[in-house]
Amino acid sequence: MDFIEACIAANREIYALLNSDADLRKECKRGFGGDISLKADLEAEAIFIKHLQKFGRIYSEESGSIGEGKDNIIIDPLDGSKNFAANIPYFGSSCALEKEGKVTCAVIANFAAGYMQIKYERRFERRFFLDDRVQKITASPLCGVGIFEKAYDFNDITLKLKQASLKCRSLGALALSLALSHETDFVLFGGNIREFDIAAGWYMSEDLHRLKTKDLLLVSKDKGIFDKIRDFMTRLDI
């Protein structure tokens, strides 16, 4: 598929850039999404534009709407850029193609771990940067830990998770965390839900148990865990 191949090429170029000696941690302008963009954010965005602009209108965290076209391409050029700046190994990119209001394919790259997660048609796989090895993704057995992004803003939920013996981590890159929904016990996020943060990962988790409201997102492969978290969040009126 041409779009997927273009996404892979863009991510390979960004991966090489982030692993080069280039000075990419300089703070630049405030981006469309509200955060201060690093040089790395802007250079990654430029690479995506170069590879993807022929497929439609690009909607990016850094610059908002770019170009025009019938289809929409929703990107976060560098998800977890603060992690990148601090040498915390959890950062990547997300890209989704939307046709007639529905996402039809997506690529999420984890640059720190060295792979891309790809979903389109009936294919759902992980492809590694260094050796092009391909690994099929399926829902794995319970692993004993979930991901709660922005947990620091929700102490009451964190306490309930602890009381329910549901361990969690807050890793700082929502798209990457959603990409792990099939392998972790749950992914939970509270706060401002932005389209470029979730479009690709939400599409990748469409076969799991999910809940999305104006400022809350919950995904789990396990119905029991999903119901438990949803129920105590309802009791907390969140």
Kindly describe this structure.
This protein has 238 residues and is an alpha+beta fold. The protein has two domains: 2-136, Fructose-1,6-Bisphosphatase, subunit A, domain 1 (Fructose-1,6-Bisphosphatase, Chain A, domain 1, 2-Layer Sandwich); 146-235, D-Maltodextrin-Binding Protein, domain 2. Helix content is 31%, strand content 31%. It is built from seven helices and 15 strands. It has helices at 2-18, 39-52, 81-85, 155-163, 174-179, 195-204, 223-235, and strands at residues 27-30, 36-38, 57-60, 64-66, 72-79, 92-99, 102-110, 115-120, 123-128, 134-136, 146-149, 168-169, 187-190, 209-212, 216-220. A hairpin with a 5-residue loop joins β9 (123-128) and β10. α1 runs antiparallel to α2. The protein is globular, with a radius of gyration of 17 Å. The termini are far apart. 41% of the residues are buried. The mean pLDDT is 93.
What are the main properties of this structure?
238 residues, Fructose-1,6-Bisphosphatase, Chain A, domain 1, eight-stranded mixed sheet, five-stranded mixed sheet
Task: Describe, in short, the structure shown.
The chain has 238 residues and is an alpha+beta fold. The chain has helices spanning 2-18, 39-52, 81-85, 155-163, 174-179, 195-204, 223-235; strands spanning 27-30, 36-38, 57-60, 64-66, 72-79, 92-99, 102-110, 115-120, 123-128, 134-136, 146-149, 168-169, 187-190, 209-212, 216-220. α1 runs antiparallel to α2 (39-52).
